[in-house]
Specification:
The N terminus and C terminus are likely disordered. It is globular and about 75 Å long. It has 3 domains: 207 residues, Histidine kinase-like ATPase, C-terminal domain (Heat Shock Protein 90, 2-Layer Sandwich), CATH 3.30.565.10; 168 residues, Ribosomal Protein S5, domain 2 (2-Layer Sandwich); 139 residues, Rossmann fold (3-Layer(aba) Sandwich), CATH 3.40.50.670. 42% of the residues are buried. It has 20 helices and 21 strands. The strands form 4 sheets. An 8-stranded mixed β-sheet has the order 5-4-3-6-2-1-7-8. Strands 9-10-13-11-12 form a 5-stranded mixed β-sheet, with helices on both faces. Helices cover 35% and strands 21% of the residues. By secondary structure, it is of the alpha+beta class.
Length: 643
């Protein structure tokens, strides 16, 4: 046996302290892309929210600084600074440098906590070039600095606190540019999450400032979120662009075994539901026992009411959960002293006792509400009966589109030019706008791993139609069949035939509309594709510039002008404007859009389901005014004429 192939104790590495975090950051924050970058902010904010849940914090401020660092400050008790008995170092230093160190494990300091795993702020420290913490407590101001997770000197006692000075903690960190793919914090991404936290914690004031941008008055951009109505206001916010069936939001709260349960919901005339479940402020995107308990009780209560009042008509049996949830907006929030999440990313709640507690609270309080509000109850049941009839009409059409196995290929659409590989990890599906672009793409592609499906024109807006109508659309049926994983409740991500589904649309208004229509379909009926990161959009260049045998591509007019001046001495041989993918010949399409070595793809993901729900409703729903206002807000230079 050679020396190189030996495997023994000498080959076992022990990563000390935060070294493991720097070695494998994605294990702790999910990824090192923009999602992971913003996760750093959430981890620090979660500590402040935990102080608020414990009743010791009212104000939280998050500031994106001009140098791309972030500062999170609160008026809580302040991180302890006295000496830790075991480590013989200040508790502040221990919390920031030792994994699984914190005050959230024994339910004494914090009855409820989102950052239960105790890796939050120490992971932020490990993945920052520099972190500075300032604590106000015990009558003094203390500071400690760190670089790449390591202390820089000792904690300093800076000064005595003023008599009117409040306690609190301020953490500023500079993300490590060698770890993250981007260092650009998104105001809108942070805004969505902080607004969500304010809804979930009534009475807490959260302010977001951006020192990188200024208003017309030379002031930093700033937004403040504070909602005394809590998740009731959350439901009202989500329904701002929808037609509600009853004015008041159905709300109740309960507590059992120290587990707090809050439910708020409101039925709408819309077809798309919007249900969001949280556990200790964590958005449990994959659901869990709290969501299961909610759905089970909701179905039982409405069926019981419908049967008792003879409202189910001739639907032959009870209503199904999907019928009842059509158009329903709901927020379920539980606070648990010992939550069990599946995985470090905490996207699914696993506590078995929670299901029964939520079910019991729902059954009792929703049943009482219906007895006291019969008009609202009847309207909800009648809407569900209509949905049940439409569902049954859709079943036959659905059978025609469902792929039972990723290996079946006999029913693939005729327009699909499939690839040779059967490995979804390698396979790519280009959904091309128009037969012309589809034809070029079929000639340009690498048939070994690239498939092409042309679609004609604009597909149906699924935001406004039930499944039976959706499945009558040939282009949508072709997409469902090609992707191979089914649709809606029948969707199975394990059956997907391609793990890169690429929307290839023109870089114009029509192309953007077609892309939005496809995204609406994926979000409403194949959401796991977006959550799994399988959906992409091409980013074809707008211009091709030639000069002295060299070829340059530009994505924008500004980039074109820069290339002309700097690379072509102001006199290019040719400047070609690509009006659409269909105008590119196969060679150009391959070089600019399909070649993995050169192309630019934009991955489409869903970080905040509630924000996405509302945005699709604004852009694709029936209400005109919210959409008009959105366009006005985001196109300030547009000239509007009311007709």
């Amino acid at each position: 046996m050679s020396q190189e192939s030996e495997y023994g104790a000498g080959q076992i590495q022990v990563l000390e302290g935060l070294e493991a975090v720097r070695k494998r950051p994605a294990m702790y924050i999910g990824s090192t892309d923009a999602r992971g970058l913003h996760h750093l902010v959430y981890e620090v904010v979660d500590n402040s929210i935990d102080e608020a849940l414990a009743g010791h914090c009212d104000d939280i401020t998050v500031t994106i600084n001009a140098d791309d660092s972030v500062t999170v400050s609160d008026d809580g008790r302040g991180i302890p600074v006295d000496t830790h008995d075991e480590y013989e170092r200040p508790a502040l230093e221990v919390i920031l440098t030792v994994l699984h160190a914190g005050g959230k494990f024994d339910n004494k300091s914090y009855q409820v906590s989102g950052g239960l795993h105790g890796v939050g702020v120490s992971v932020v420290n490990a993945l920052s070039e520099r972190l500075e913490a300032e604590v106000k407590r015990d009558g003094a101001v203390f500071r400690h600095a760190f670089e790449a997770g390591e202390p820089v000197g000792d904690m300093e006692r800076v000064r005595d606190m003023d008599d009117d000075e409040e306690t609190g903690t301020e953490v500023t960190f500079w993300p490590d540019t060698g770890v993250f793919e981007t260092g650009d914090f998104s105001f809108s991404t942070l805004s969505n999450r902080l607004r969500e936290l304010a809804f979930l914690n009534s009475g807490v004031r959260i302010t977001l400032r951006d020192e990188r941008q200024e208003t017309e008055d030379d002031e930093a951009i700033e937004e403040t979120y504070e909602y005394e109505g809590g998740i009731r206001e959350f439901v009202e916010y989500l329904n701002e662009t929808r037609s509600v069936m009853h004015e008041d939001v159905i709300y109740f709260e309960d507590e059992e075994q120290n587990i707090q349960v809050e439910v708020a919901m409101q039925a709408t005339e819309d077809l798309q539901g919007s249900i969001h479940a949280f556990a200790n402020n964590i958005n449990t995107r994959e659901g869990g026992t709290h969501l299961t308990g909610f759905k089970t009780a909701l179905t039982r209560v409405i069926n019981d009411y419908g049967n008792e009042n003879d409202l189910l008509g001739d639907i032959d049996g009870n209503l199904k959960g999907e019928d009842i949830r059509e158009g329903l907006t709901a927020v379920i929030s539980i606070k648990h002293p010992d939550p069990q999440f599946e995985g470090q990313t905490k996207t699914k709640l696993g506590n078995s006792e929670v299901r029964g507690i939520v079910e019991g609270a729902m059954h009792e309080q929703l049943g009482t509400y219906f007895e006291e509000h019969p008009d609202t109850a009847e309207a909800i049941v009648v809407k569900a009966v209509e949905a049940a009839k439409a569902r049954k009409a859709a079943q036959k059409a659905e059978e025609l589109t469902r792929r039972k196995s990723a290996l079946e290929s006999t029913s693939l659409p005729g327009k699909l030019a499939d690839c040779q590989t059967k490995d979804p990890e390698e396979a790519e599906l280009f959904i091309a706008e128009g037969d012309s672009a589809g034809g070029s793409a079929k000639q340009a592609r690498n048939p070994e791993f690239q498939a092409v499906l042309p679609i004609k024109g604009k597909i149906l807006n699924v935001e406004k139609h039930r499944l039976d109508r959706i499945l009558e659309n040939d282009e949508i049926r072709n997409m469902i069949t090609a992707i191979g994983a089914g649709i809606g409740d029948e969707f199975d991500i394990d059956d997907v035939r391609y793990k890169k589904i690429i929307m290839a649309t023109d870089a114009d208004v029509d192309g953007a509309h077609i892309r939005t229509l496809m995204l609406t379909f994926f979000y409403r009926h194949m959401r796991p594709l977006l959550e799994g990161g399988y959906v992409y959009a091409t980013q074809p260049p707008l211009y091709r510039i030639r000069y002295r045998g060299e070829t340059y591509d530009a994505m924008t007019e500004a980039e074109r002008d820069e290339i002309v001046e700097e690379k072509c001495d102001g006199s290019p041989t040719q400047v070609q404007r690509f009006k659409g993918l269909g105008e590119m010949n196969p060679e150009q399409l391959w070089e600019t859009t399909m070649n993995p070595d050169n192309r630019i793809l934009k991955q489409i993901t869903v970080e905040d389901a509630a924000a996405a729900d509302k945005m699709f409703s604004v852009l694709m729903g029936d209400a005109v005014e919210p959409r008009k206002q959105f366009i006005k807000d985001h196109a300030p230079e547009a000239e509007w004429i009311d007709i």
